[in-house]
């Protein structure tokens, strides 16, 4: 694509780039002066495996990163880009901006809290403005979500899909520049960003996938994974994973010689097929929406895919597909007390618990579905808390939300309580004291301790320490 030198507006340039450039071209442009115009070329980038340095004189270096990047979260990929060339497509003298973001694989994703996952429609300007306010450091941490899912699917009208992609890309670029500016500390980027794209059988899938790949690979944009709606089997995951692989290969073919492409893709060869059933590992982390009966019955094989980082329940679609009757939560008032009716999800109980089993069997994250009533009256808020408690007791890692007024209660409930932490500390101390006591008396430790009459084994200590670690991570956010 040729962009005229007079295209000085970053907004116009980014819109053109979004429409015409491949993802890796956005990530790694080479700038070539030709008749007062500047032409982009591209080089394939493999997530987690390469360091790319692009200098102001258009020279670049791509160096191989160690395999340990697959599993070591403390090591991050750094990309140095001539931001002026990328946004304005011109060779003005501008200092390159360097930013980093942390990537998480299936082993390290559990190291971050994902208590609250807020849906944000990408086409809704007002909702995006609310996100900016939520991320303000002036907002209490308890009222900020752990994760944000920017939505290009159900939350966007079919006629607004392209506009939503452009608007979201510009918004996240602005969010990044605001957070990275040396003179401001008013905006937090301390959240886990997800992008929900449209199904692979829709006309919007290809453009959504191209945008998603760009955003995940771009270290300046806070998107860490891609959410796939209405996944119904491992074949669906495999198709999308192969599509992302082909996007990267296609990018290499358009702008880089075959030697570069072959060398780069050697790190994602057939030995990445770790879990069988035709599983091809996606170059970007994938999250599967479980929202149909077929998906429930296939939840275990979906969770087994190496490309999948987590399962997210879509309880509204699931309720429709199960043909459950619409239910409302009522209260029964007596002269002395108010009794809440059970959370109206009994018809989905088997489906929800089976999804949790599937996720835990393959050590994946599982996020509960939404609560539809956003009224702020006391009764409704109590019903919402009851549903959060229900999900926590069943073993969910967090909950998807549709309104900011649901964030604080969710964060509170899915965080370890004061009582839970106190008991966890007592379990660990009891265990350590038992080991020390038996060691000092010259006896071998029996592997059992007793606290308040209850038997304590190593598994209880592991659970207690995990709870304490979770609290520490939340506190440090």
UniProtKB/TrEMBL annotation:
Pfam families: HpcH_HpaI (PF03328). This is HpcH/HpaI aldolase/citrate lyase domain-containing protein. GO terms for molecular function: metal ion binding. It comes from Discostella pseudostelligera. Residues 256-268, 325-344 have a biased composition (Low complexity). The lineage of its organism: Eukaryota, Sar, Stramenopiles, Ochrophyta, Bacillariophyta. Residues 115-404 form the HpcH/HpaI aldolase/citrate lyase domain. PANTHER family: CITRATE LYASE SUBUNIT BETA (PTHR32308:SF10), LYASE BETA SUBUNIT, PUTATIVE (AFU_ORTHOLOGUE AFUA_4G13030)-RELATED (PTHR32308). Residues 251-280, 324-344 are annotated as: Disordered. Its cofactor is Mg(2+). Keywords: Magnesium, Metal-binding. It comes from the Eukaryota.
């Amino acid at each position: 694509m040729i962009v005229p030198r007079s295209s000085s507006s970053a907004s116009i340039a980014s819109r053109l780039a979004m429409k015409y450039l491949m993802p890796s071209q956005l990530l790694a442009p080479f700038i070539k002066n030709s008749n007062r115009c500047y032409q982009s070329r591209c080089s394939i980038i493999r997530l987690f495996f390469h360091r790319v340095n692009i200098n102001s004189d258009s020279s670049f270096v791509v160096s191989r990163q160690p395999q340990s990047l697959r599993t070591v979260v403390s090591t991050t990929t750094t990309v140095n880009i001539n931001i002026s060339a990328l946004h304005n497509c011109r060779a003005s003298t501008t200092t390159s901006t360097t930013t980093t973001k942390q990537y998480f694989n299936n082993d390290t994703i559990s190291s971050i809290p994902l208590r609250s996952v807020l849906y944000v429609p990408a086409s809704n300007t007002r909702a995006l403005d609310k996100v900016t306010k939520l991320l303000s450091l002036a907002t209490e941490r308890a009222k900020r979500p752990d994760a944000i899912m920017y939505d290009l699917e159900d939350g966007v009208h079919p006629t607004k899909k392209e506009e939503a992609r452009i608007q979201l890309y510009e918004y996240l670029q602005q969010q990044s520049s605001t957070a990275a500016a040396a003179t401001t500390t008013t905006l937090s980027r301390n959240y886990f960003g997800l992008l929900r794209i449209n199904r692979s059988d829709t006309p919007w899938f290809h453009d959504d996938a191209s945008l998603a790949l760009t955003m995940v690979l771009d270290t300046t944009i806070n998107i860490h994974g891609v959410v796939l709606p209405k996944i119904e089997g491992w074949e669906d995951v495999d198709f999308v994973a192969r599509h992302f692989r082909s996007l990267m290969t296609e990018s290499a073919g358009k702008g880089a010689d075959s030697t570069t492409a072959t060398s780069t893709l050697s790190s994602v060869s057939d030995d990445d097929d770790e879990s069988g059933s035709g599983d091809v590992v996606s170059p970007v982390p994938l999250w599967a929406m479980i929202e149909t009966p077929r998906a429930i019955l296939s939840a275990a094989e979906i969770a087994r895919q190496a490309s999948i980082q987590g399962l997210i329940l879509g309880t509204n679609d699931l309720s429709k597909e199960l043909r459950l009757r619409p239910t409302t939560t009522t209260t029964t008032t007596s002269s002395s007390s108010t009794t809440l009716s059970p959370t109206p999800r009994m018809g989905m109980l088997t489906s929800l618990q089976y999804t949790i089993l599937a996720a835990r069997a393959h050590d994946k994250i599982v996020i509960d579905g939404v609560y539809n009533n956003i009224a702020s009256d006391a009764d409704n808020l109590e019903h919402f808390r009851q549903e959060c408690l229900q999900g926590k007791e069943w073993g969910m890692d967090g909950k998807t939300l549709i309104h900011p007024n649901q964030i604080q209660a969710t964060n509170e409930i899915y965080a370890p309580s004061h009582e839970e932490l106190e008991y966890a500390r007592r379990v660990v101390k009891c265990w350590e004291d038992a080991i020390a006591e038996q060691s000092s008396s010259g006896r071998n430790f029996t592997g059992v301790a007793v606290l308040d009459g209850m038997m304590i084994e190593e598994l209880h200590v592991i659970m207690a320490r995990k709870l304490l670690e979770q609290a520490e991570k939340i506190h440090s956010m």
